[in-house]
Amino acid sequence: MPQPAQYRGMALVIPDNDSEWIEYFQHARQHRLVMRACPACGLMRYPPSPACPWCMGLEWTWREVSGRGTIHSYEVVAHAIQPGFKDATPYVVVLVDLDEQRAVPTPDESLRIIGNLVRPDGSMESEREVAIGRRVRVMFQDVVDHLALPQFTLTDEPPVGRVWRLPE
Amino acid sequence: MATSSLRDKYCIVGVGETEYSRHSGRTTRAMAVEAVRKAILDAGLRAADIDGMMSYQNGDSTPANWVAPDLGIRLNFYMDVLGGGSSTEALIGLAMGAIEAGMCRAVAIFRSMNGYTEFRIGGTGARAAQPVRGLDLAQVPFGMRSAGQNFAMTFMRHMYEYGTTSEQVAHVKVAHSKHASQNPKALLKDRVTVQDVVSSRWIVKPLHLLDCCLETDNATCVIVTSAERARNLRQRPIYVMGVAGRVSKPRTDFHWAHGPISRVAGYYAKDIVFGQAGITPEDVDITGSYDAFTFTTMLQLEEYGFCKKGEGGDYVSSGIIELGGKRPNNTAGGHLCEGYTHGMNMVIENVRQLRGTADDYCPKAADGVHTYDYGPRMCRQVRDPEITMNLGWAMPPTGSALILRR
Ligand SMILES: [Zn+2]
């Protein structure tokens, strides 16, 4: 795949021998959110990694997930340090609990993933909309022909648990 | 947890630092040489007495084996490790191990950084332009690169789970600014109020500008040797009671996978370090809880058991952490006000406090004569402290700790 991909002034480098990421982003380009799953114990993990953190298994398959989840935490960047994000401030970064494998294999563990909170058209969502507990779904931001970034957008599903945002 | 211990067998015998500034105008090599030299002289040692040297850095400094020969030091052991915060305490433990193994006799540990004029911690400039690869692909493409951006979701979740407020944690900055006003070396000597903190501009919510530490040019050094050797040196020996180095949560690569994300590494480190020292938090007179941000101080104090988990906001806003309070924290002003050193200045300060020679505005401070008047431009010496503790922070899932006594 052509290297690197340019996105917001950053050079994203995913060489052909990047055994963790290359297929992940190829799936993302097809607008599929996939996790590595361990054939031995059946558990999924993120980010993609060369071994299973629960059974040390080296085998893996890609398993598609729904991309639906709940905002576990978030931040609002008012002062961007990356030049390509300066015109996007204030922008929201969310930590999402994916619906699959919540509190598994222990109550402390979940499949979590980070992305920007965006509108369905891909522009940055207003910080006034973000809250812990609100529901989101994945959407894909096409960067170049071979690369898309998974992002998250709000849904109108009922929230999970207490809804909270930083007081103004 | 039962751990073996080298309690009271090793000492910090010398400390030294350069000016804390934003205009060093010289190399990290030149600054390291000054800090190491000062620490050697502080200890009453000669160059020939130092035969071990360690440093930590992030590709932004000068290695130990370039610094030692500048001072005529021949090394039997040296090592430069990759790392920032939490390295100081970890390297003190490693230095003890190197001496215990018979590899060397006295180790100078330094950190030298042009943290403002060359490599800014915040990730601006050259750091912001670095290619994004490997694990960074899980965060950086989403505008999450600087330390504040990497930690903010931990802080936000703590506010959600425990009701912690911006005003409560602002007291950390208030306390440290008070302490810095009694420190001639401090980069910022002006006292601030809670209102000053919460009305300063947002950097990354929930962090305001004044919740964040100061990028600084400086070098710092401590010298570790055996207690046996320490007893005949210039300064009162300061004994290491316990040390824990870079203790980590189950995941450090993408620590968000393992919750609660409001839990930090001290949860795992506390049993190691208190177990070695054989004391409890109640026995500690002064803390040095790493203040990369106001929140990091608060999170660690509660995780190490100075208050209950979730009550850190109450603890830091109660007055306990201020000079004159029950257990002051970062009595030189810490990273928020004295200067950003990746942890070393907080260990140096605790050593000086235990010696009774905090270098405040008291005219005879070096002789241990203090007024104990904690007004601005006055005294910052705590009265007769016996035990101090440093709580080092690398990131939410990794931290170190060090317990010292006089
Ligand atoms: Zn497995």
Secondary structure topology:
The complex is a heterodimer of chains A (168) and B (406).
Chain A: E1 5-7, E2 10-12, H1 22-29, E3 34-37, E4 44-45, E5 61-64, E6 68-77, E7 91-98, E8 112-116, E9 135-144, E10 147-154
Antiparallel strand pairs in A: 1-2, 3-4, 3-5, 6-7, 6-9, 7-8, 9-10
Chain B: E1 10-17, H1 28-43, E2 52-57, H2 64-67, E3 77-82, H3 87-100, E4 106-114, H4 147-162, H5 166-180, H6 194-198, E5 202-205, E6 207-208, E7 217-226, H7 227-230, E8 238-248, H8 266-277, E9 286-289, H9 294-303, H10 312-316, H11 334-337, H12 344-355, E10 387-395, E11 398-405
Parallel strand pairs in B: 2-3, 2-4, 9-10
Antiparallel strand pairs in B: 1-7, 1-8, 4-7, 5-6, 8-11, 10-11
Helix pairs in contact in B: 5-9
Zinc ion is lined by residues 38, 40-41, 43, 52, 54-55, 57 of chain A.
Characterise this structure:
The complex is a heterodimer of chains A (168) and B (406). Chain A has 1 helix and 10 strands; from the N terminus they run ββαββββββββ. Chain A has 168 residues and is mainly beta. Chain A has one domain. In chain A, a hairpin with a 2-residue loop joins β9 (135-144) and β10. Chain A is globular and about 45 Å long. Chain A starts with a strand and ends in a 14-residue tail after the last strand. In chain A, 40% of the residues are buried. In chain B, β2, α2 (64-67) and β3 (77-82) form a beta-alpha-beta unit. Chain B has helices spanning 28-43, 64-67, 87-100, 147-162, 166-180, 194-198, 227-230, 266-277, 294-303, 312-316, 334-337, 344-355, and strands spanning 10-17, 52-57, 77-82, 106-114, 202-205, 207-208, 217-226, 238-248, 286-289, 387-395, 398-405. Chain B has one domain: Thiolase/Chalcone synthase (Peroxisomal Thiolase, Chain A, domain 1), CATH 3.40.47. Chain B is 29% helix and 19% strand. Chain B has 406 residues and is of the alpha/beta class. Chains A and B meet through β2, β6, β7 and β8 of A and α4 and β5 of B. β6 (68-77) of chain A pairs antiparallel with β5 (202-205) of chain B. The structure holds zinc ion.
